[in-house]
Amino acid sequence: MSASESNIRNCTPPAIDDFPSGLFTELQRQHGAIVIHALISIYLFLALAVVCEKFFVPAVDRICTALNMTNDVAGATFMAAATSAPELFVNVIGTFITEGDIGVGTIVGSAVFNILAVAACCGIGAGMVVPLDWWPLTRDCLAYGITVSILICIMHDEYVMWYEAFLLVLLYGVYICIMYYDKSIQNFAKKSWKCVSNMIKTDEEKEDNAQVEIDGKDKSSNKRDNIDHHQHNGNIKAGEIIAETGDKGKISKEQEVKTNEDTSVNVVDLEIVHSDEVNQNVDTNKEVLDEYEHSLWKWPTGRSKLTKATWIITWPIHLVFLFTIPDCEKPKFKNWFPLTFLMCIVWIGSLSYIVAWMITIIGDTLMIPDSVMGITFLAAGTSVPEAVSSVIVAKQGHGSMGISNSIGSNTFDILLCLGLPWLIKASLTPAEPGNYWVKINSMGLEYSAISLLSTLLLLYLTFWFNKFKLDRAVGRACLGMYAMFLVLATLIELNVFFPVNVRTCRRSELKS
To answer: What would the mean pLDDT of 438-448 be, rounded to a whole number?
Structure first.
């Protein structure tokens, strides 16, 4: 008994034990059955893409219209909550069933994926330059930065008390209220920024005018000398002409400043008009692209081989969704969008859980440590809905909605996907009688938190230097940063630099 306890203390149980037992044994998987798991994962990725594109995004769009919400607010609330359903499912299982840290690991891993990889997918997948509004990006980055900082403070002592978990849930309520009054806050923020910028401009203009006056005084004194000199020579008119020329130079300088102000205002107006034109062009292009509509009972005659192959492969997926999710884009189901939204959450959560299960089996078979699988494949697997939904809305020209979805998903993950299961577990079913807390293995948490905050800062600076435009250059930069993070995080998780994680237990150690 003591030997098994020491083994458990020196190693962590594999994540595959957090899921149901598979159809194949470990030996069968090593002899080729692993390929079936890989094919199932790919097919479920397709199913997630279909449910997001055909049902989920239109449902969110209808909710935006019904509640009179802006696209970026909807992305940071409804879309973020729905696409984060997989993380919520995984953390509920990790908190109540296995009592391990699989939920925390998945949420931390998917957070970096959401910040960098989703932005990379939007930039590269949109296929065009998408203008972004600075306000939603600044708002969501600030909210997420505060959320991560609070999480570090709560988990610092390796215990999450019931009132700390309640604080997280309460903060999500505050976050929703802020989103509800977003238009008022946005107008206030933009007016404040405009006042500050005008004050800076006014100060600069005063300095310029003061400089002009000093130069004018110097010139006028020189002119007086010239006039006196010309008077002595009997040539007064020449002096008057020189004085008039100096005054005209001063007046033209003031006119130039005013012209610059008017030009800057016109440039802002032109940018707004240009962004509207871009959105109109995007909508027009979308209409052209959407001329081919997928039909379950009609063979795509005259289409490419790829379209025909996709139609055959995805036919079972569309058939299942036809009987389980009402299509709110059809006239007879146009008012059914709340049910469409709920059914999409159920499907996204269920499919993503199976994807996470398949990927965990693949990692266990290939002897890849769970910590590495959590950061890489498992995080990517549970974040597929965010990536697909964000790319779809970015292609429609709503870049701010896509980025708000990815960062808003992270805020939802920490405040509700972690906070709610912790609150229920700590308050209703404590691990020890009288101790209303949840034990957390926070080894390596500081490095994860630093990586989260640093990637968030890098993303914001990337958009800042690119003048808040989402294009291929930003996509490639984010992809490069995500690759660097994966390499560094994998080396840290493998204890290459210093001991961070306890190794995964072998089957023989668990049996003994």
So the answer is: 66
Distance (Å) of CA 10 to CA 6, 206, 369, 391, 501: 6, 70, 15, 43, 10
pTM equals 0.65
SS (H, E, C) 96-162: HHCCCCHHHHHHHHHHHHHHHHHHHHHHHHHCCCEECCHHHHHHHHHHHHHHHHHHHHHHCCCEEEH
Q: What are phi and psi of 325, to 5 degrees?
A: -125, 120
The region of weakest confidence among 103-112, 167-176, 246-255, 420-429 is 246-255
3 state DSSP class of 437? strand
In this prediction, residue 294 carries a pLDDT of 66
pLDDT tens-digit profile of 288-314? 334 456 677 778 787 778 888 888 888
| CA dist., res. 230 & res. 227, Å (int) | 5
Choose among 226, 151, 129: nearest CA to 445.
151
- Going from the C-alpha of 353 to that of each of 44, 57, 64, 101, 271, the distances in angstroms are 10, 20, 28, 16, 44
Q: What are φ and ψ of residue 411, in 5° steps?
A: -60, -45
